[in-house]
């Protein structure tokens, strides 16, 4: 059996901060896991280095389930984003090792491919509707089958999801959090027009998505969903904060627009009521923040009982290691829905060479043994960590609000 001989945390910043766990074995095989928690990266790095790694050395690297349970139950203070991100990093690295030792890509160990690839969606954002539609058309020309639309709102200086970059959106920046301003009334008036014009310009053969980013009350979300029904959205994402899972009952009562939520979830318990009462259509928990491949498979299995599909978060705050893990996961499960795909920068791709690929609107993790991602540690060392925060949000009268 392969014994874990060492493990260490690698922090690098090729365009943005990433935390990577590298686990080594006595058979000369190592595995990588993503441990990036956007805006709180060093908390996970410390959790791993100071508390988890000492418990790994000497263990059987094949014992993925036992190690997962040890780290989850053994901590006593269960769950939470820091703990579950650290567990996820270990889990990914162990699946990577198992695949390499077996000489197989991880998706084969999970039961094999259930489809030819994972449909992904890109991010079309613009300062106004015309620019957003132009960006969406560029995605169509590249072969995408699904696009998320986010546009600047008249009368608001900033809007979630809108940046100067054409193909990705990176909100984490600055040594202190930026403050943005929000108006629900202006937003609610504007969004139906965005999708009316988008359907007129783009037609009906493309899936259109939209992210509210936790900005509405349940009844406001129900009203927006109803207003958007004529435009047949693929989903309306994060319509309201989901700490109170029952809040989605009210949204469900008022709209048939499909609902997606869960990118900030870190365990099956965050989604249990939403799934069992069929209050959502897509669960968006991520491999890195929800305890790794091992735990996310449990979430997907529960969701499958209730015809809820996956739609994992996949912005640039997930490293290529996590993107690969998400694709192996998505390729293998029966109830895959869609995978978010925001391209990494050239600097990031150079630090994390990978086997996954995009073709005809689908992504495939590749067939290299393990996860199919490596890290260039010499290059990674050239990019030093720099503190960066996600923004915070206030209403127009100054009240703190959900970002």
Strand and helix map with partners:
Elements: E1 4-12, E2 18-25, E3 30-34, H1 41-56, H2 64-74, H3 81-102, H4 106-109, E4 118-126, H5 129-141, E5 146-151, E6 179-182, H6 184-202, E7 207-211, H7 218-228, E8 235-237, H8 247-254, E9 259-261, H9 272-276, E10 282-283, H10 292-305, E11 309-310, H11 320-332, E12 339-340, H12 346-351, E13 357-359, E14 362-364, H13 377-380, E15 392-395, E16 400-401
Helix pairs in contact: 1-3, 2-3, 3-10, 5-6, 6-7, 7-8
- Can you give the mean pLDDT? 96
CATH class identity of the largest domain: Alpha Beta
Poorly predicted regions are none
- Return the CATH topology of the largest domain: TIM Barrel
Helix content: 25-40%
List the domain count as a whole number: 2
Number of helices: 13
Gyration radius over CA: 21 Å
Query: In percent terms, what proportion of residues is strand?
Result: 15-25%
SSE succession: EEEHHHHEHEEHEHEHEHEHEHEHEEHEE
Shape: globular
Terminal CA distance: 47 Å
Number of strands: 16
CATH architecture descriptor name of the largest domain: Alpha-Beta Barrel
The CATH superfamily title of the largest domain: Enolase-like C-terminal domain
User: Largest sheet, described in full?
Assistant: 10 strands, mixed
Cofactor: Mg(2+)
GO molecular function: magnesium ion binding; mannonate dehydratase activity
Family: Belongs to the mandelate racemase/muconate lactonizing enzyme family. GalD subfamily.
GO biological process, one term: carbohydrate catabolic process
């Amino acid at each position: 059996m392969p014994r874990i001989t060492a493990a260490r945390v690698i922090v690098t910043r090729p365009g943005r901060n990433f935390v990577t766990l590298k686990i080594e074995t006595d058979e000369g095989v190592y595995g990588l896991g993503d441990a990036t928690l956007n805006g709180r990266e060093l908390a996970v790095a410390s959790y791993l280095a100071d508390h988890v790694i000492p418990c790994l050395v000497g263990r059987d690297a094949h014992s993925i389930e036992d190690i997962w349970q040890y780290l989850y139950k053994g901590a006593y203070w269960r769950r939470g984003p820091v703990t579950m991100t650290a567990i996820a990093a270990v889990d990914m690295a162990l699946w990577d090792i198992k695949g390499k030792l077996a000489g197989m890509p991880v998706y084969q160990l999970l039961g094999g491919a259930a489809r030819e690839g994972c449909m992904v969606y890109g991010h079309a954002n613009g300062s106004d509707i015309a620019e957003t539609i132009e960006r969406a058309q560029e995605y169509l020309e590249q072969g995408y089958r699904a696009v998320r639309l986010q546009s600047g709102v008249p009368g608001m200086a900033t809007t979630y999801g809108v940046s100067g970059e054409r193909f990705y959106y990176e909100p984490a920046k600055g040594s202190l959090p930026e403050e943005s301003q929000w108006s629900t009334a202006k937003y609610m008036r504007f969004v139906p027009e965005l999708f009316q014009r988008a359907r007129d310009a783009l037609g009906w053969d493309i899936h259109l998505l939209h992210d509210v980013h936790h900005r509405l009350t349940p009844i406001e979300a129900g009203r927006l969903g109803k207003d958007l029904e004529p435009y047949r959205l693929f989903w309306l994402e994060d319509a309201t904060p989901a700490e109170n899972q029952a809040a989605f009952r009210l949204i469900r009562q008022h709209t048939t627009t499909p609902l997606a939520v869960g990118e900030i979830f870190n365990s099956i318990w965050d989604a249990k009521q939403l799934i069992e009462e069929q209050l959502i259509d897509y669960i968006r928990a991520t491999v890195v923040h929800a305890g790794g491949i091992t735990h996310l498979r449990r979430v997907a299995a529960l969701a499958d009982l209730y015809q809820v599909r996956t739609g994992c978060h996949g912005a640039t705050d997930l490293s290529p290691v996590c993107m690969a893990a998400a694709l192996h996961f998505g390729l293998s499960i029966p109830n895959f829905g869609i995978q978010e795909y925001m391209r990494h920068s050239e600097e990031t791709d150079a630090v994390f060479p990978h086997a996954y690929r995009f073709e005809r609107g689908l992504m495939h993790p590749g067939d290299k043994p393990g996860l199919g991602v490596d890290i260039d540690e010499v290059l990674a060392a050239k990019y030093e960590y720099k503190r960066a925060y996600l923004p915070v949000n206030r209403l127009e009268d100054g009240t703190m609000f959900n970002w």
